[in-house]
Amino acid sequence: MGIARLFFCCFILNLYIYTVNSLNEIPGEENCETLPSDIHLIKEEYDELGRLQRTCNGEVAVNKCEGTCNSQVQPSVITPTGFLKECYCCRESYLRERIITLTHCYDPDGIRLIGEGKQTMDIKLKEPAECKCYKCGDFSR
């Protein structure tokens, strides 16, 4: 009985300490932002027989989501693990579609294309227009 009682007291003490530590977090202190970023984009175009016709590339300015969101783990008598986990991730709340023009196009031999209307390529790109904290795994926005 002494060991079981000691274990129970330590378990309760650990839960109490864990609960106090989780309460020390400042609620609402999130840092999820929509930030500008540059990427190098490469797009290849093939004919109906699968042969490479041209490759176009360029540096493109796009938005990205970056930052931190409040997540927590707290004791729970309901869950099988004994802890309730709430995880939040920084991700897009809205995607904007843009048309990007790639201006460096080359034939399969690596020769730059300058005529025939093949010197540029327009592609559709979706990028974050706004970022927010969402519950991890929640894709039903």
TrEMBL record:
Keyword flag Ribosomal protein: no
Signal peptide boundaries: 1-22
Q: Which UniProt keywords apply?
A: Signal
Q: Is-annotated flag, keyword Kinase?
A: no
Q: Extract the Gene3D superfamilies matched here.
A: Cystine-knot cytokines (2.10.90.10)
- The organism sits in which domain of life? Eukaryota
The record's listing under PANTHER family reads: PARTNER OF BURSICON (PTHR41151)
Stated name of the protein: Partner of bursicon
Origin organism is Nicrophorus vespilloides (Boreal carrion beetle)
Q: Which gene encodes it?
A: LOC108558617
